[in-house]
Write a structure and sequence with these properties.
The protein has 894 residues and is mainly beta. It is built from eleven helices and 55 strands.
Length: 894
């Protein structure tokens, strides 16, 4: 079946290429139409893109030819007009002036174009004061609505100008009259505006990504040259354009699935939205959505992530050299930015898929000062479970919904406000007896104030609330189990740029509240005894200072320092234990009760963050170091998050995780930045990693310190990346070799795992290979391919079994002594878009995708069953064991 599908897909794509531009024929005679109208009809019906200037050919009419072929009509109509036609790669056609013919005809189409150009009138003509300088101001944004700092604004061919501020704001003092203003920024098309300035007024500008017709259609996000020269080490940026190109599960573009293609990033299991970065655990990643901390990034058992792709503008992953402004997690930072991405007063967007649908609106109002977007997604996946020939599956259910809104308001030239709200709910039920659900809610409010073009102040207030619930319906054991975590924060940030220096400084305060768990009877007949564990309260106060400096043309450095003080506060009652003894119920000596706001535990430390970039003739070498503290821990005895897990704050027994990372990278661009290659190596050292005693029970355990132990960790790795940024075929290939180990050393036997020797950590997966390709078949059709390979993760296999009182008990002599089978999967997609013009009012696309193309039965986990006369035999659990096709329709209009 996979071979048949691939063959059909290949024949289909070849069929699209079979016809060339010379073969495209109209079914009617278009004589008399203007050439722009003719070209529009050709682009709508044929796989062709025509590049031209409308003013040149607006007055030329199509002539009649005998074969009604598009190319023949163009050639006949442009005969002796002063223009020539060039065809590139069979599907791109260029109309441009012929210098010799123009001279001979005495006609210059450029002069005609200037006469027809539109002049923008600014201000009130009755208030015009000749000879008096008049203020012109505005904001520069990209096509998504994100402001662009550092845009070069030139007036009248460079006679004067300025640069847009960190808020994208600019102002010019000009004499009243006619002016030509050019807006330029690396990676974007330059925009020229001709204005008639009468009095003070505003002119807002949208810049569009740079496209080079001689190199086909390309998008340079951030600029390959900039990535070569900046100080970022271990940082990857993905635009929503790159994410949308990748094949996705059920046609839904996904932030988390996209970053797993990057070197050093792997998922914990099939369909999971929990990632391991450079061997770290999945709770060691700080995940932000417009500065809202996200504690569970998954929807629908991990097949989807919480980030609505219709609202995402940019994704940044920091694997090393993490900037000092970010609070601590031990491995990485995933910073996801949402923005309205609106270019008109009202726009609607949405999508319909096999499992999910989405709908939203966005726009710019109040003279473009207020931009907004509101969007929601929901699933209707129960019909899939009902179609499965298994009774347990038929009585199961899984669904989710989420809601996002982002509002930005430019108060004036110095102030802007941005608000974000997020709400989501997931629910899944197995065999009618247990229902798992979780709710997430968060908001952030950011105020930016520009003291000057050099000094920017930011104040951000945020809140995140994540709650788990498990509802059991077994007879006489109906129960409701709850736990959760809340985080509230306030950030004060200053950014100052002048000369060679770019300084950042700030003070952050965060408050944490965890609910370790409560269980209550859910029926009058339930035998469940109510149990509630005490809440935990903590506060962190952090300050940071960082400077990025350009020392020479070839040498740049970023040096930062973050100081954090953490305090666990009462009320709380904890046990005390005998000195020099393992912590267990037999060594307790009493209890200590702490009052409201009384300090229980206090940790503080410096977190240096530094990186260096040196540009040499043959390559760029970068060196980076960072130290990170982590005070929140996800307590779980499963490889992927379950509703029985809980978040735990550091206390007097469970110390914060501390990680130190040193990284070295070599970066090289080829063929005028078309190809990027990099090699990065790193070493990491962990202190106070969480590990579990044998037989640890974490559910509703009021003394977790009795089943948790502290471990030391070490990790190292080498990552290779090759990316192609231009041309009809784009994409990247990555390979990473990495190892992560842990050991627990103690004088007490019960606190030593594997006799205190080093053993593989749960996220240790030595080999990771990723390939992502996007091929533009025509200007409307494109094809994407993903391939992922990863070594199997470690698991513990029983060495023997015993029968005690007719109960079989497994015996494990070593932890993580085996591995599940290696993981590999290929996905493919075919996309048809009707968006070929940047100002097109209705845009849509169809996405046909196949997840797990060759139906690989990857192991999600391994379990063991008794086998008579032999050791327990392993069996694997597979989540997506077959090829999963999907069809999705996405639209947007204004």
């Amino acid at each position: 079946m996979p071979r048949i599908f691939l063959s059909g897909l290949l024949l289909f794509s070849l069929g699209l290429h079979a016809q060339k531009i010379a073969d495209f024929r109209f079914s009617y005679d278009p004589a008399g139409q203007s050439l722009p109208t003719l070209i529009h009809q050709a682009e709508s019906n044929f796989p062709v893109t025509v590049f031209y200037k409308k003013a040149w050919i607006d007055s030329i009419r199509a002539v009649s030819v005998s074969d009604n072929k598009f190319l023949s009509i163009l050639q006949a109509s442009l005969s002796n007009s002063g223009f020539r036609i060039t065809i590139k790669d069979d599907y791109y056609l260029f109309i441009y002036p012929d210098a010799e013919l123009i001279t001979g005809l005495g006609v210059n189409p450029f002069e005609e174009a200037q006469v027809k150009e539109t002049w923008i009138e600014i201000g009130d003509q009755s208030k015009m004061q000749p000879g008096v300088l008049t203020r012109l101001s505005g904001y520069v944004s990209d096509a998504t609505g994100e402001v662009i700092p550092g845009v070069t604004i030139s007036v009248d061919n460079g006679s004067s100008g300025t640069i847009s501020s960190p808020l994208g704001y600019y102002q010019l003092d000009l004499l009243p009259g006619n002016h030509s203003i050019t807006y330029s920024y690396l990676g974007f098309e330059s925009e020229e505006k001709k204005i008639k300035l009468y009095s003070q007024g505003a002119l807002n500008i949208n810049l569009y990504e740079e496209t080079s017709v001689l190199e086909e259609i390309t998008v340079e996000e951030g600029g390959a040259r900039d990535r070569l020269t900046n100080t970022s080490l271990g940082k990857s940026d993905l635009s929503i354009y790159a994410i949308n190109k990748m094949p996705a599960f059920m046609g839904e573009s996904d932030v988390i699935k996209s970053i797993t293609i990057l070197p050093g990033v792997s998922v914990t299991g099939e369909s999971s939205s929990y990632i391991s970065v450079r061997g770290g655990n999945y709770d060691q990643n700080l995940i932000l959505m417009n500065d809202i901390p996200i504690y569970n990034p998954s929807h629908l058992l991990g097949f989807f992530s919480v980030f609505n792709p219709d609202m995402v503008s940019k994704v940044s992953l920091y694997k090393g050299s993490i900037p000092a402004r970010y609070e601590s997690r031990a491995s990485s930072v995933l910073d996801v930015k949402l923005s309205p991405r609106a270019t008109s007063p009202f726009m609607a967007y949405g999508g319909i898929g096999i499992l999910t649908s989405s709908l939203g609106v966005k726009g710019k109002v109040l003279e473009d000062k207020l931009t907004y977007t509101v969007g929601s997604r929901a699933t209707y996946s129960d019909w899939v479970l009902n179609a499965v020939p298994d009774q347990d599956a038929k009585t199961s259910a899984a669904n989710f919904w989420d809601f996002n809104s982002v509002v930005e308001y430019q108060v004036n030239s110095k102030n802007s406000v941005k608000g974000t709200f997020y709400k989501a709910k997931d629910s899944f039920q197995f065999s009618e007896d247990t229902t798992y659900s979780y709710d997430q809610m968060g908001f952030s409010l950011a105020w930016n104030h520009l003291f000057s073009n050099d000094l920017l102040y930011n104040l951000t207030v945020s809140h995140s609330d994540y709650q788990y619930e498990t509802e059991g319906e077994a007879q006489n054991y109906q129960f409701l189990l709850k736990n959760g975590i809340q985080q509230s924060g306030i950030q004060n940030n200053l950014t100052f740029s002048r000369g060679m220096h770019s300084l950042e400084a700030g003070v952050h305060i965060n408050r944490f509240l965890t609910s370790p768990g409560s269980m209550s009877p859910n029926s009058p007949n339930s035998l469940v005894v109510p149990t509630t564990l005490s809440e935990e309260h903590a506060i962190t106060v952090s300050g940071y200072l960082e400077d990025e400096v350009k020392l020479t043309e070839s040498l740049r450095a970023r040096v930062g320092l973050r100081y954090t003080n953490y305090q666990l506060m009462g009320p709380l009652t904890t046990y005390t234990y005998a000195p020099d003894s393992p912590r267990n119920e037999n060594t307790t000596t009493g209890e200590i009760s702490y009052d409201q706001n009384e300090k229980i535990a206090d940790y503080h430390g410096m977190e240096p963050r530094a990186s260096l970039s040196y540009l040499m003739p043959w390559a760029t070498v970068k060196l980076g170091y960072n130290r990170l503290y982590q005070f929140q821990h996800l307590i779980s005895n499963a490889i992927s998050v379950t509703p029985l897990d809980q978040w735990k704050l550091s206390d007097q027994f469970i110390k914060p995780v501390i990680s130190d990372q040193l990284a070295l990278g070599i970066f090289k661009n080829f063929q005028e930045n078309t190809l990027e290659a990099s090699v990065e190596g790193y070493v990491k050292h962990y202190q106070n990693l969480i590990e579990y005693k044998n037989g640890a029970n974490i559910v509703l355990n009021e003394s977790l310190e009795q089943v948790l132990i502290s471990g030391e960790g070490k990790a190292w790795g080498l990552e290779f990346l090759l990316a192609k940024n231009k041309g009809k075929t784009q994409g990247w290939f990555s390979y990473a070799y990495s190892r992560t180990f842990i050991r627990t050393q103690s004088r007490h036997q019960e606190e030593r795992i594997n006799e205190g020797h080093w053993y593989p950590y749960y996220s240790d997966r030595p080999h990771n290979i990723s390939l992502s390709l996007d091929h533009k078949i025509t200007n409307r059709w494109s094809m994407g391919l993903n391939f992922k390979y990863a070594s199997g993760r470690p698991v513990s296999a029983p060495a023997a079994r015993f029968v005690v009182d007719n109960v079989t008990v497994a015996y494990f002599n070593e932890r993580n002594n085996e591995r599940i089978p290696d993981y590999h999967r290929a996905d493919i997609s075919l996309t048809h878009e009707n968006k070929v013009k940047k100002n097109q009012q209705f845009r849509s696309k169809w996405v046909i995708s196949v997840y797990n193309l060759y139906a690989r039965k990857n192991a999600y986990s391994i379990f063991f069953k008794n086998s008579p006369g032999a050791p327990a035999q392993p069996y694997k659990l597979t989540i997506a064991g077959g090829m999963i096709p999907s069809l999705t329709y996405k639209f947007e209009f204004n």
